[in-house]
Design a protein that fits this description.
Order of helices and strands: HHHHHH
Low-confidence stretches: none
Helix content: 55-70%
Structural class: mainly alpha
Strand content: under 5%
């Protein structure tokens, strides 16, 4: 499969990330947000760190995106798509599955 263009990645990022910068910032302050994800050495989870980076990207003008931003957008799109496929049965409102997705900027209940 051919690598997606930067424009395609930006478009898919904008579809996958359905939380605004302020909304995501507030979410990342919650205990629920901090309670999920893989933590290397007991520190911040990868998803929580990614969420902080997403906030930075969302606050930028599209013309200011760096190659690192585009690369991170690729990771976000991949994670959101992969994680959505693992949706548990039943009410997902208060699940680690939802909280993890929200750390990556996607609220599946929206």
């Amino acid at each position: 499969m051919a690598k997606k263009s930067d424009e395609q990645v930006v478009e898919e990022f904008q579809e996958a990330v359905n939380m605004g910068a302020g909304e995501l910032e507030e979410w990342l302050k919650t205990d629920e947000s901090k309670s999920v994800g893989q933590k290397d050495g007991g520190g911040e989870s990868r998803g929580h760190e990614s969420g902080r980076r997403i906030v930075e990207i969302l606050k930028k003008d599209e013309s200011d995106y760096s190659k690192d931003d585009i690369s991170h957008m690729r990771d976000i799109v991949s994670y959101v798509h992969r994680h959505q496929a693992q949706e548990p049965k039943g009410d997902t409102r208060d699940t680690k599955w939802r909280y993890s997705l929200m750390n990556w900027g996607h609220d599946p209940l929206k």
